[in-house]
What does this fold into?
Amino acid sequence: LRDAEKYYFPLSRHAASLRQLLAGVQMHPALRAYYNAYLDRGLPDVAVSQFGTWGIPCPGLPGQVLYEWFEMAGSYLYLSRESALKRGCADFFSGPDGAVVEAFGFDNSFFYGFLVPALIREIDPAARPPKAFLFNFFYQLEGKKFSTSRGHAIWADDILGTPQTPGILTAPEPDVLRFYLARSRSEDRETNFALEDLVAFARSTLVGEWEVLLRELDRDLAAAGRAVPAYSGALSWEHERL
It folds into this structure.
């Protein structure tokens, strides 16, 4: 053990303003409970610098580099404004009609709920706060965490390029995969992707139930000389989101 000098960001001083900010952000109840419990325990101060050679060197601290989350917070503002300049419109953080919606995994909840908003306020106090958080728990592959570095991954092109599902789905369609992913999403719990489950779902539900139902409906309508009317009503806000 030895003493070391490091830079620290006093996140604990931002607890009150962060509690107020988070109260106005739309999010899943589980995520809100996590944030409230953390605020009740007390926020820690976060080291700005760390020992290493990969990253931006910290002035005055040889052998230390900037912790990447401090670099990322500033880059969100910068990249948003650079993109707005290229597109000839206002950026998300300061434009009159913009909105900031953050999407992240549950393991990064601390950073996107506490550290990044506090840093952005320090950089630009007038920056627009986030409107909503979209988060998910881990989505595993065959019971293990996805890892491209270990080769434990599966790509959509590989699934769609290999016939895996029966009946009308012998040539797998993107919508089948999208529907299965939406059904097994890890929005409120940790879930798992398994090719066997996808095949079984397509066989039992899409082909065994829905296809049968739709064929019977089509037969009954044809026998009655009727057809399914076209939908002409306006979509609700919820339907437009989907």
